[in-house]
Structure formats: C-alpha cells, structure tokens
Amino acid sequence: MAFAEPLQLQSGAVLRDYRLMYETYGTLNADKSNAVLVCHALNASHHVAGYYADDPKNVGWWDNMVGPGKPLDTNKFFVIGVNNLGSCFGSTGPMHANPATGKPYGAAFPVVTVEDWVAAQALLADRLGIDQFAAVMGGSLGGMQALAWSIMFPERLRHCVVIASTPKLSAQNIAFNDVARQAILTDPDYRGGDFYEYGVVPKNGLKVARMIGHITYLSDDDMAEKFGRKLRGIVENGVAAQGKYKFGFGIDFEIESYLRYQGDKFSEYFDANTYLLITKALDYFDPARLHDGDLAKTLAGTKAKFFLASFTTDWRFSPERSREIVQALLCNRREVTYAEIDAPHGHDAFLLEDARYMNLVRAYYEQVWQEVQKKEGA
Q1: Which residues are catalytic?
Q2: Is 131 annotated in some ligand binding site?
Q3: Which residue in 98, 239, 253, 285 has the fewest CB atoms around it within 10 Å?
Q4: Beta carbons within 8 Å of 54's beta carbon, 6+ residues apart
Q5: Predicted model pTM
C-alpha cells in the first residue's frame, strides 16, 4: 500500500511517499468486526503464516499460531500482518530510494519509534476500512506495539494481546542492544550506513550482532540441554577424534558452531541499517515516561480487554515486566487475563510449540470470537 501523504515521526522528521507491505489471511466479515492485527518482532515481517506456492520453504514466522484451526483461527478471523517502516522486507526502509535524492536512504533514513509504526498501521487500517480491530496482538517487540495501540487508539481495538513483552527495556537490555549496534557501526564495510553505494555488506558486524542477540533469546537451561560443553569433532590423519581441544581460536564447542551458523544466516538476509533502527526503537519505547514513570496513569485511558503471557525462563523480558503491566491495568479496573508459563526455552518460547501456551491463546480467542458473533447478530 503506497502512501503519498507525509507521515510526521516522533523525532520531528517527516517521511514522504512511503509504502507498507502487508499480508492478510482469512475473510473479512460484512461488518468488519473480525479483523486481528499481528505486530512483528525484530527480525520478522508481514509474512506471519503459511507459505508461498513458489517458495514452500518460506514459512510464516508465527505459522504455529495463525492459520486454519490454529489458536488464532483464520477460518474465523481476518488476520493482517504489516512489515514495519525501516524494515527490509518490503516496507520503505534504508535500502529504498529517498525521493529527495534518488539514492538509497542509507544512514539518512529517519529513526523511527514503536509509536511511529503504530501510527502507520492505523493509516493502513483506515485504507482497509477497518475502524476497530477485534484484537491487536504481538510478541516481544510486537507486544510493545500492541500495548501502544491500546494507549494511542483506545477506541480502535477491543482486545490487546501482549506476549513475552515489557513496558520498557531494562538497562541490561539497552546495553545488549548497544553492543550489537557497535558491532555493525565499527565494521569497515558499514561505510557510515551508505554501504549500498559501494556494493558491500557489513556481514561481520551483522553476524556478531545476531550472535549477541541470539544468546539473550535462549535460557541457560535450554542452551545447556541443547549444547552443554559438547566439542566439535576434529580429524586426525583422516580419522575423526572426539573430545579434543584444537588449542586455537576457531570453533571448539558446539555452541560456538551454532551461534556462528545463526550469525552467518542472518547476515545473508537482514539489513544492517534496519537492525540499528529496530533495536533503537526497542530502546526508546517507554510510554510511561510521559507520565513521570507512572504506568497506571499511562494506561488509564485504555479501553480494551487484555491478555498477557510470560515465560518463567525469559530473562530478557521477564515475567516481572508483564506483571508490571497487569498491576497497572488492575489499578485501572481493566479486564485482564494473565498467564505465566513454566517453559524452558527463554524468550524464544513465544514462538515455539507449548501446549499450555497455545491452548490458553486458543481459549482466549474463542471468547473474542463469541463477541464477534454477538456483534454480527446485533
């Protein structure tokens, strides 16, 4: 969807002639009461579920959650996934041409915030004729967007579904993000953000940034169970030898091999400027700062019903952060459903199969569906 009208950003910058890439699943009903917006996390996109006929391996990032008969059932709901501005999967971002210069934006692409993304999503909803969503849902950074929707457009969603998220990043989280950004910024191939013109990619920086991030998405227990201190086998005189150190700075341990594989893969498809933009948007999100840090006051104008879920081993966005949101909502007498799930997978648990988690989301959306049917019959 192309937008000619300028978008005023929180930074004071203005984005002109931009486009948003989006996908939809299911069928919008006659009164448009069954629409659900799914907001994506850091390295995801508009491609939420299913796969393309010409690319069957490209499965949507939340395919276990969204689809026919799944917890967010597309036989019932009309689901929309939107790629955020500044991303590298179709929506206008640093690699696209700046209308003012005809060259890629590069480092000149304006810094965007969670609130900027939500404002753009609302404009897309306007174009689609959707005045109110049955629910806005997201995990991690997507959960921040869902929470922002409830604050910025309280009349435009009936339910807010926030999974493994937080009302603001801790100092430790900001620190991890900055170290990851420094890995990119100090890569010689970054070229001040204008590497497109030189035909290079700061792969080493991206690789290290992803390795740092990936460590924080896993729990210690999960990492220990998957990898422990297992050594990579070495070959001596044509024979595999196990349990020996290489006495160098290459790959000795399986965890090192795994992280480097993840980093290499990430550097092949993700954009360095996008990584900088999205992690900065994570850092900046703190809606309560406009209310002297009072989250209850920040959420006082919300009108949605809320579902929140957290995972016990998620040390990046810990259950304590979700409980802060729950407490602030209860102070405002909002209807809140909260689940704290004992799962071993760390932050990544929100993307994985867990029967308790999936069944809770399914049950909640069944309640949302019953409300939709009542609206249709009214």
Answers
A1: 140, 314, 347
A2: no
A3: 239
A4: none
A5: 0.95
